[in-house]
Amino acid sequence: MTPISRVHKNQGVKLFIQTVIARAYPRLIGQQREKSWMFFDIVLPLLSVSAYVFIYRAINAPEDYIGFVIIGGAMTAFWMNVLWSMSSQLYWEKEQGNLALYILAPNSMMAILLGMALGGMAATTLRAAVIMIIGSWIFNVHYAVVSFSQLFLVFLLAMVALYGLGMMSSSVYLLLSREAWHISNLAQEPIYLVSGFYFPIKNFNFWIAAGASLIPLTLGLDAMRQLVFTTGASLGFLSVPIELGILSILCILFLVGSRYLIGYMEKLAIREGRLTESRR
Amino acid sequence: MHFAIETQNLCRIYKIRGGKKTEPKELLALEDVNLQIRHGELFGLLGPNGAGKTTLIKILTTLLAPTSGSAIVAGFDVVKNPEKVRPRINMVSGGESSGYGLLTVRENLWMFSQFYGIPSNIANQRIKQLLDIVGLSDRINSKSSDLSTGLRQKMNVVRGFLTDPDVLFLDEPTLGLDVGASREIRHFIRKWIDDDQTRTLLLTTHYMVEADELCDRVAIINQGRVLACDTPATLKHRLQGEAIYRMEVSPLNGTNLQDFESIAGVHKVTHRAQDGFSILELILAQDDVISSVVNTMTAGNIHILNLQKREPTLEDVFVDLVGKSIEEMESDADIEST
Ligand SMILES: Nc1ncnc2c1ncn2[C@@H]1O[C@H](COP(=O)(O)OP(=O)(O)OP(=O)(O)O)[C@@H](O)[C@H]1O
Ligand SMILES: [Mg+2]
Fold it and tell me: What is the pTM of this model?
């Protein structure tokens, strides 16, 4: 039998990139393997979107509100992804036994988190795009994009900030362990409401809207709607440049925060023996 | 001389938190562990449940901080330079459910190889080769969630070897596997060590045969302390002066057992109840003590069904050191926990 030989291993930037791609892989490929995603991630969200559309039509709301709802419904997919597949992910990986293997490997945990985020973002973009296209087609929504470059920038910043928040909260969840599950459950519905997935947050009192803006999707959605609909600007919370500025700050805050927290979490878990679930 | 693994007075205390108000209890999981494992050695840690085997492996693999003492693995301190240790090691635990069920065997293994910076094409070649050796190549494209326990464990073991570590840690690699699968994995472990003399492997087990047949050296560990550390042959040689007998007798109860232990020249007696009879293993100072044992039995109306002298095994060494067999300790623990 041929001997099991030694191999060359990359380090530094190459290793970092390899790690990011490898951790993104299960989300890029694996998540599409079970075809049930089409029902849970497309059909169900479209149903809740439809509910709002029918209500708005029934009360004769401005036609642009229909578009608001479609975009909101598509962006909800990202929020769900961050809530259930980023924030609680490290906790789940710990139960599964993967977390110890990630820490054991020679890469930085940031590479693992980034891989998770990029993979989740890509898989969710697919779902969001399908929701947008089908929703716009069924309900005959017209878009009037003011600036494609600004729109892209808003989307990009909102994504970085949102997944940065997910990366950061994944460490927090890990420290809170079992409580984490309940927090996700609690967070889901109220945040639907205050983030304005289905209506403009301008309808809220300023301070509620400002508080909701900590969740990057809130401002991202608000800015995107302003850039996409003719009546958008009049319904916006703040002006697009200000919203871009705040989103940039959130990006930095969350990314730096996640780096700091994951380091802290790793040290604490190694000291207290909490890297594996307690049964092992 | 440089060692692949060297520990100095390693201790680990776990704090077990009870209720909100009660003071946390302390559990001494490792106490003054001093081990020196050479490059090229296949080293076994043998001990019952709760002995501290996994705790020691976690410390050596940088996943757990020691409470005091130090450890050098592959040339670096596990506390001060974990980032230097990690590229040089890997670990697999028995019964782990790592990876992602939706990915195939190849994809799971490929993913882990990337975390160690192995170029993709080389990783794929190596995955094929290793799966071939463990006899899993026909399942290379199966979803890992579809694998049976044994096949899954083979995949996990391959993951450990795939990243070409200098020092590999296997925590109960054959846990829960049938005889055939265990043998294949042991065979693979031996081949990996023999293929390159610079590799070092530390495995834990509570199977005596595994330690005896597979390992170059064995440390016997119980309640966090290393009781003995040597080659299996030397360990067994310690009992060479003593006589070891295996008896099958009519069913016994606990009181009889104490009668035997009080006979002069009887060092240790272990007892296993079977269906309709009992098995006794006796460690005696010398051969003629057996006649006193037989006399006591006859007096107590116990029938001897079978009597046989045998060579010492690691099991006997363990009993000699600890006073009980691993099996007895584990069934005691079961009774306590119910
Ligand atoms: N994270 C932890 N917190 C508290 N106590 C722990 C923790 N991990 C292990 N222990 C305790 O430390 C002792 C040693 O455990 P360890 O897992 O190292 O034993 P082991 O030899 O691997 O046993 P097994 O054969 O059952 O795997 C046990 O009493 C165990 O209950
Ligand atoms: Mg163990």
Answer: 0.88
